[in-house]
Amino acid sequence: MARPLRIEFAGAFYHITARGNERKDIFKSNRDRSQFLSYLESATERYDAVIHTYCLMTNHYHLLLETPSGNLSQIMRHINGAYTTYFNTKRKRFGHLFQGRYKGILVEADEYAKELSRYIHLNPIRAGIARSPGEYRWSSYRSYIGKEKPADWLARARVLGYFGKKDLEAQRGYRDFVEEALKRDYPDPLREVIGAAILGSVGFVERIRDTYLKNRKSGRDIPSLRALTTGPSMEEIERGVDRVFGTDPVLARKIKLHLCHTYTAHPLKEIGERFGIKESGVSLASRRMGLRMQHDAALRAKITKIKEKIKLQNV
User: Fold this and answer.
1) Cβ neighbour number for residue 7 with a 10 Å cutoff
2) Residue 141 C-alpha from the chain's centroid
3) Which candidate, 129, 113, 115, places its Cα nearest to that of 56?
4) Which of 103, 130, 254, 260 is the most buried (most CB within 10 A)?
5) Side-chain half-sphere exposure of 57, counting CA atoms within 13 A
6) Strand arrangement of the beta sheet that strand 198-199 belongs to
């Protein structure tokens, strides 16, 4: 079975989630939640963790976490291990509290820190346990908007810095950014995760792969590593399509979009921007072209030749 890649280096950012074993509750009282927060604090003191945002639900939690010392595994052993000991001792129970290992997605912070912080803070609304993020006590949102005094260990400056230089300006800007999403459907940033391990631009994925993953050879890592393989660029795909369908620009554009969506690791947002459509329309347009190819043998044969020529492989 493939396992999630563990990529650790100094200065890395992660979106962390951990769920209760068999999806059972890991927080049964406010005392439990307060105790868990104390382990976040001690992780910052003992292991140099930087906690940017958090949200404690009932059977899971979310963190946006930075590791200046490149020691994610050590940090998470402390947080989950200390809390499991506390929880089991209090309730005179034994065994695992969490469902397997935590899930840690490496994040390109400048691209996704804002979106992920909003995603984390909106968890209680998506779960139907709060009507607004500001009424939920067990996330960092209230500290972000100035509704309560932030803990000394909570690192708000990075995210709030995107919204203004002065505290009040940044807090208001962030509040508007988060609560604006309550009025509409907004894209889930985690749907752009590549290989169940990395959230970032193609350039970021390539840098991580080439710098930190080049010598990985473990059999269980291979499927995850394969998902991080990047083939020809979108420019190469477009040139290949133009050589065959250049006289029909409308059809060529549809084929380019379909091949970029199917055979590159670019996020939907990047593909949508390139073709001038919303990211929600990328999958729909690509699916339509795929169906058209199924029913048009001549078209399918031409596109197959393009794929062979530029060595396209599913990523």
Assistant:
1) 21
2) 19
3) 129
4) 260
5) 22
6) 50-56, 60-67, 12-19, 103-107, 198-199
Q: Which two tokens stand for residue 134?
A: 């500001």
Kindly report the pTM of this predicted structure.
0.72
- Nearest residue to 225 (alpha-carbon basis) of 238, 241, 212, 240: 212
Q: Is the Cα dihedral 297, 302, 308, 313 positive or negative? A: negative
Give the tens place of pLDDT for each residue, 205-264.
878 887 877 666 554 454 455 556 556 778 889 999 999 999 999 999 999 999 988 877
Distances (CA, A) of 298 to 165, 179, 295, 302, 305: 58, 50, 9, 6, 11
Residue with tokens 């899971």: 60
- pLDDT value, residue 225: 52
pLDDT tens for 166-201 read: 999 999 999 999 999 998 877 788 888 877 788 888
Domain extents for the chain? 12-202, 234-309
Topology of domain 12-202, per CATH?
A: Alpha-Beta Plaits (3.30.70)
Spatial contact of 12 and 72, defined as CB atoms under 8 Å apart: yes
Q: What is the homologous superfamily of the domain 234-309 according to CATH?
A: DnaA protein, C-terminal DNA-binding domain (1.10.1750.10)
